[in-house]
Amino acid sequence: MSKMRLQPATSAGADLWSAATCRRFHTPRHVAVFQSADMSAHSKSIHASMPSTAITAHPDFQAAFLANERQERLNTGKVASILVLVLMPAGITLDRVVYSDHPDFLRSFLILRLVCSVLAGVLWFLHTTEFGQKHYRMLGLPIALLPAFFISCMIYATRDPGSPYYAGLNLVILAVSVVVHWSLSESLLAAGGILVMYFLAAFSQSAAGHFRIIFNNTYFLIVTGVIVVTGNYFFNRLRFREFALRFELDQNKKILEANNAKLRELDQMKGRFFANISHELRTPLTLLIAPLESLLHRFNFDQATKELLATMHSNSMRLLKLINELLDLVRLESGQLQVRREPINVAEFVKGLMSGARQMADDKRIRLETQVDPALGTVIGDRDKLEKIILNLVFNALKFTPAGGKVELRTEKQSDQFVLIVADTGMGISAKNLPQIFQRFWQADDSSSRKYQGVGIGLALVRELAELQGGKAEVQSQEGKGTTFTIRLPYQKAEESKVQSPSSFAKATADEKSKVEDPDALAPHGDSRLKPELQDSETVAGAEDSIAGKDARAAGGDSGSREEWLSNLYRRAQLFPGHTPVQSSLRPVETGRNGRNRPTILIADDEPDMLRFLKTELSQDYNVLEAVDGAQAVSKASQFQPDIILLDMMMPEKDGLQACREIRAHTPTHSIPIVLLTARADEETKLAALSAGASDFLTKPFSTTEVQVRIKNLVQSHQYQRKISKQNQVLESTIEQLKETETQLVQSEKLASLGRMSAGIIHEINNPLNFATTGLFTLRNKGKYLAAEQQEEYAEILRDVEDGIKRVKTIVSDLRMFSHPDVESRDQVEIAEVVETSLRFLSNEWKDKVRIEQSLAEHQTIWANKNKLIHVLVNLLQNSLDAMKSKTYDQEKPGIWIEGRVEPGKSLLIVRDNGKGIDAEHLDKIFDPFYTTKDVGEGMGLGLAICYRIIQDCDGRISVRTEPGKFCEFTMEFPEKGQQTSSTRTETEHEHIASPHSSTNPLIH
Questions:
Q1: Are 498 and 381 contacting, i.e. CB atoms less than 8 angstroms apart?
Q2: Do 300-575 and 587-702 have matching folds?
Q3: How far apart are CA 893 and CA 915, in angstroms?
Q4: Which residues are paired to 602 by β-bridges?
Q5: Under 8 Å CB-to-CB from 268, ≥6 apart: which residues?
Q6: Where do runs of H (alpha helix) occur along 677-787?
Q7: Which residue ranges make up each domain of the chain?
Q8: Three-state SS for 91?
Q9: According to the model, what pLDDT value does residue 748 have?
Q10: Interatomic CA distance for residues 355 and 336, integer angstroms
Q11: What is the tens place of the pLDDT at every residue in 515-535?
Q12: Strands 644-648 and 674-678, sheet pairing
């Protein structure tokens, strides 16, 4: 049932009150309206100014409020009547002091006071009658107006508007606030009525000369009235709120009591149901265990069958132990678990129990030590409950202690206490978790990636069993160092006459030990699980028939043997560890695919029995890799690249969902099919599995046939996808090669077209140049006919024209040589001429924009093809100019430095700019064909690749040195004539040497 909420109705004050109330109760605001037609004027005025709430809609609220209001008004009315009855006659003393010089006033004042007291007595009497209880509001207002009327009469009698008795009217108004706490309307009526009475008394006589006194008295009466009315308004709001809260509290208390009763009833029903279902589970479970033990002891199966039967028996015993512990908790809660005390030889008892736990300790390589105080001797105690306490603590310590650690069990006698101490060197418990360690079903790690199994029953059972015997359980722990559990029980030494003989006790202990450690029992081949005792066929059959409810005689054994078998079975379940230890260190190291072209499957599960079962079922058709947690699964998936992965949902380190996400996020493993195993079948879990990238999921319990079919389908699909992916890669590579070939052909055709076009342009330009040269000769001859003062200027103009024609001829000549180079011809090329020609080609790009500085060695030559060398230099200069356009300069100016120098055996040409440089990630691809970082249409990505080939044809090499944002420097190295450069390319800390498939430049075409 939802909590009832207080909500506001109107006014700014109500809004503030509502905000505070809503914050307190965490509720939304809404309005509820009173519907009661019987609500009185006082109640209505309160409700009009107070917040209407959902609580007021309660059918009992209005009646309860009216009853409370009636009782309070009756009580305050009686008190007010008594005050008037007593205080009015007492005022005669004031009359004698104030008006002692007016004896005639005293007599009339006395009469007025006595009449007022009599009337007040009548009002008090009416409050006690049925009439007064019904019409209590009618009696309220006269209580205040009655003394005010008689005081006003006294003021009138004195014929003095400034009479000090006006203070009595103030007292009456204050009494309205202090004593009766009327509603807003009643307070206004009372204050207004008293003020009117004073006016009538003051102005009925001549007010000449008394205006200031009347104004003064009126002012204070009005102020007092305002204060009283305001105070009553807020007081009634608070009173209404308080009543609503008390009413809500009472209603919630009733609801809580009813809910508590229902919870107790449900808890009892839960306990009964739990006990019944546990008993019902015991029956089929015991019928599973008995035939399994019979099969294991009577028949000689092959190794695989023995392991399968041992796994079935192991998990049946674990389930039986869990059911028994749950039943013990139910019995403890219902008070049905009784303490049955008997003599116990502590040393022999502890020795027998530890022999059952030692195998698990050895499997985990944990040192298990026992220390018994000889002073204990034989004690009186409950053997069964003491056994459960010790085994739960020891198994818990073994579970949380890593290999190489130590678990110690000590028994001591401390004063009048029998003390059990179990200490380990495990992971410890954090301080914040210590208070909850003994709570039922509580676990420090309840996530799906928890490392340790369990349901949180063992330690809760330990504490409750200890308290049942009059003792207590304590725990001390230091995180990372270990935990110590201490059980303190009342010490009671056994009487000698009741002590079991050492020989018989030793025999019983040996019998129990043999039941646990029989090497021919359930777990052949050194299985680490505990072994059940052997039973003859008659006893097993008798147990089955007894559990099934058949006649005892048909079982082939008496009732005593059947009960003994069941008792021994339950005790063996108690001795059984709650989990199977994972011995990952003993597993063989996988080496990936191991032949026969079988698919590889990776199985990840922290439950060793499940891992063993799945491996057995799938190993015939698959190479099986194993992982015991999510982290191993991710690592092995990346290492071995299996064809399919089978993940359990709940695993330590990383759960199945997290492992699935990480596998999907890793490129080499993102396409591997993943199947998730989960015990939950709800829609949320399915959606979470699919969202994490799972290809499929299986809910437990599952059919092995279904597992095999689903895995087979996914593996085949994955293999087909791999084949398609490989073929797709081949096709993409072929298409890419075709595109590159097409681009090269197009570029070659463009260059050929450019050559043909250049030849035509050169021819067309040559003819006009010849005409211009002839015309220039004619013009020069005509100049001698000009006036002498014009000839000098005329000659200068002709020289300018002649220089222009020569420049055009030079450009045409260079263009002819560049467009139709002699690929076979090499000669000694002057570096200065190459630089001059290249700069002339790009003059429009750099003049008045970029500073060009040259530092060339005198008469420096290179054995190369001149046109090709010009092509290289033009390309490098153009790249430098483009790089400087995309950079913003503050103080320095864009510049290009061209340096040429001769060193022993080689000639160097260096081009450096202060542009934006080349990013490091592009250097390895800078000379690759068709690689460019420019926008579409700004370059083909062939410029530097062609430069590299040209320089290589000249037996030279090119390297780049750069610092992003500051500069870029290309160095061309050429051998002297007749020498060959080494084909070996080197790279220093500051220099990147070009290779046919290395580099990228944001400047390239």
A1: no
A2: no
A3: 10
A4: 625, 645
A5: 334
A6: 683-691, 704-782
A7: 1-33, 58-257, 300-575, 587-702, 822-993
A8: coil
A9: 63
A10: 31
A11: 433 433 333 333 333 333 333
A12: parallel
Whole-angstrom distance, CA of residue 485 vs CA of residue 473:
7
Is the distance from CB of 948 to CB of 935 less than 8 angstroms? no
pLDDT for residue 601: 92
Q: Per-10-residue mean pLDDT for the chain, 1005 residues long? A: 35 34 35 35 43 60 76 80 84 81 80 86 84 77 82 82 80 76 78 83 66 80 83 80 82 86 80 68 72 77 77 74 71 69 85 77 83 84 83 82 86 86 85 75 51 62 83 85 88 62 40 40 36 35 38 42 64 59 44 66 85 84 88 87 88 83 86 85 79 83 82 88 86 83 69 65 75 80 77 80 77 61 68 87 79 86 83 84 80 87 88 84 72 60 74 85 87 74 36 38 33
For the record, the structure tokens of 466 come out as: 């200890």
Let me know: does 672 contact 645? Beta carbons within 8 Å. yes
* 695 DSSP assignment: S
Hey, what are 53's tokens?
């709430």
Residue 340's identity, in one-letter code, is R
Model pLDDT, residue 911: 92
Distance CA 649, CA 685 (A): 10
3-state secondary structure of 715: helix
Contacts of 828 (CB under 8 A, 6+ apart): 861, 862, 863, 977
Cα 647 to Cα 75, 489, 664: the distances in Å are 77, 46, 13
Strand partners, 301: none
Report the distance separating Cα 692 and Cα 314, nearest Å: 33
Return the number of other C-beta atoms located less than 10 Å from residue 773's C-beta.
13
Distances (CA, A) of 861 to 651, 841, 901, 904, 969: 75, 21, 10, 14, 21
Question: What CATH number matches the domain at 587-702, 3.100.10.20, 3.40.50.1220, 3.40.50.2300, 3.40.640.10?
Answer: 3.40.50.2300
* Element at 255 (helix H, strand E): helix 211-298
What pLDDT does residue 910 have? Answer: 92
- Helices (H) and strands (E) counted in the chain, each on its own, are 27, 20
CATH superfamily of the 300-575 domain: Histidine kinase-like ATPase, C-terminal domain (3.30.565.10)
Identify the pLDDT of residue 215.
81
What is the CB neighbour count within 10 angstroms for residue 959? 19
**Residue 488 Cα distances to 325, 407, 420, 422, 982, angstroms:** 21, 19, 7, 12, 89
**How is residue 482 annotated by DSSP?**
E
What is the model's pLDDT at position 255? Answer: 86
Query: CB-side exposure of 7: number of CA atoms within 13 Å?
Result: 18
If you write DSSP's letter for every residue of 176-188 in order, what string do you get? IIIII---HHHHH
Interatomic CA distance for residues 472 and 464, integer angstroms: 8
The alpha carbon of 148 is separated from its chain's Cα centroid by a whole number of angstroms, namely 72
How many whole angstroms separate alpha carbon 240 and alpha carbon 291? Answer: 75
Q: Torsions phi, psi of 172, nearest 5?
A: -65, -45
SS (H, E, C) 488-533: EEECCECCHHHCCCHHHHHHHHHHHHHHHHCCCCCCCCCCCCCCCC
Measured in whole angstroms, the distance separating CA 108 from the mean position of its chain's CA atoms is 88
Question: What token pair was written down for 397?
Answer: 């310590």
d(CA 512, CA 348): 11
Tokens representing 161?
Answer: 């508007």
| Cβ pair 998, 931 in contact under 8 A | no
CATH of domain 822-993: 3.30.565.10
Q: In the chain, what are the helix, strand and coil shares in percent, each to the nearest 5?
A: 60, 15, 30
DSSP 52: P
Q: What does DSSP assign to residue 925?
A: B
